[in-house]
Amino acid sequence: MLHLFEKKALIISFICAHLPVSEENKCNLAEIRNEGAPASIPQKQKTSKAERRAIQEAQRAAKAAAKEAGKPARATSVDGPAASKQAKPAKTAQKKDVPQAASTVASEKKVTERLSERERKLDAPHPRMQFDDVHKVEKAKKRAVVNQSEARNRVELFRHLPQYVHGTQLPDLESKFFQLEPMHPSVYKVGLQYLSGEVSGGNGRCIAMLLSFREAIKDYTTPPNKTLNRDLTAKISSYVSFLIECRPLSISMGNAIRFLKNRIAKLPHTLSESEAKASLQSDIDRFINEKIVLADKAIVSHAITKVRDNDVLLTYGSSSVVEMILDHAHELGRNFRVIVVDSRPKLEGQGLLRRLVAKGINCTYTHINAISYIMHEVTRVFLGASSILSNGTVYSRVGTASVAMVAHAFGVPVLVCCEAYKFHERVQLDSICANELGDPDVILKVPGRAEDQLKNWAENANLQLLNLTYDATPHDYVSMIITDYGMLPPTSVPVIVREYRKEQLWI
């Protein structure tokens, strides 16, 4: 059974074959043929022999132009409409008329964009080694200077962090003093101070490291057949690896190392060795002076406006810049009281308490477990920070997040004092992915109690002791961040990081 459309086509063909048709009727019959045909089938337009020859010549010209430009030629469809075919040769003709300078400019632009992207990736911080990878740990042990034995009762949640038996590294390192030939004595001394805890605090550790590098650069001589830039960078990298074995680097120390390596890489080759060394030593002195010493003074000048008479200021632990603020407020004759909140195992607040009381400042001392009982008396909270991340998270000594959370619940403003060189573009939402684990044995030492309550705790496989060093405070609990750039909300931290990069300070 024939379809209606097929019947219609047969009738029209019969009429065209047997009856004389005028020109007007031919057009009408053509319209009838097209009526009812599927819309998806395009009707081809007939082209003359001259038009087809012109299209072929245009295609040959386009292929030749593409070969000269070094690009693959794109074949054009012969079955397309004549108007579109005639438009394509015009486009190729326009492409031929474009000067070659425009193409070179575009290619140079692409190259510069690629280079900037490559430099950005190189400037990104190197990911920390995951200590739950057995193969990488074994390779690191072969290169290690300090022999460290892994703890037996490792905390499973923090297996990606180094967990070694504390107390065995220092004697082993002291016995290897004369065996470490490439290690400079000043760097070796700083490593021992890190291990023993003699040097602590973000600013103190960073200054000690930079001063040791300054002494190493002063005594440095370029080996024959080597350049100063590459060889000195390799030396600094070996020193950094040694310091990391003694104690993991803080974020501020990583920023300072990046600054120094960038200055070494950008030294002009026209400088002599003595001039290059003098330039690097002055850069280190300038970094310490501007980014730490003068930055703390600028923070004090901004924060002092927030201290008024009859204020009750609360601080946690011992922060050097917060202590400077309290000292300066006392020198100006402000009448205020300080509540020092402390926590085990380090009890850093006791040293701050002694220094403040010796200067005549009215103080109250309490432990962190009583923070909710005394917060109703507090008017402002001043806290220090080890680093501030780009999402506004405050990375500081463990317990800071608890103090800020309680203050936020009571509606007390939380002011965090931090130098700009401690800012980092990293984003961190918790204190698990990146942290530092302290000695678990110090948790057992409770003043006034017997120390042998858990003396043989390591023999119990079901017991693990965790001593975290840092925690992460969300920006929701922080009212204001006081830096050497001024006072700003935590949401403006990415702007500071961006401005710091624009100044080419290599954070």
TrEMBL record:
Subcellular location: Cytoplasm, Cytosol
Biased composition (Low complexity): 81-92
Transmembrane segments: none
Feature: compositional bias, Basic and acidic residues: 107-121
Region (Disordered): 38-121
CC annotations in GO: cytosol
UniProt signal peptide: none
Cited InterPro entries: IF-2B-related (IPR000649), IF_2B-like_C (IPR042529), NagB/RpiA_transferase-like (IPR037171)
Keywords: Cytoplasm, Initiation factor, Protein biosynthesis
Family annotation (Pfam families): IF-2B
GO molecular function, one term: translation initiation factor activity
Family of the protein in this entry: Belongs to the eIF-2B alpha/beta/delta subunits family.
Quaternary context: Component of the translation initiation factor 2B (eIF2B) complex which is a heterodecamer of two sets of five different subunits: alpha, beta, gamma, delta and epsilon. Subunits alpha, beta and delta comprise a regulatory subcomplex and subunits epsilon and gamma comprise a catalytic subcomplex. Within the complex, the hexameric regulatory complex resides at the center, with the two heterodimeric catalytic subcomplexes bound on opposite sides.
Annotated protein name in UniProt: Translation initiation factor eIF2B subunit delta
Originating species: Urochloa decumbens
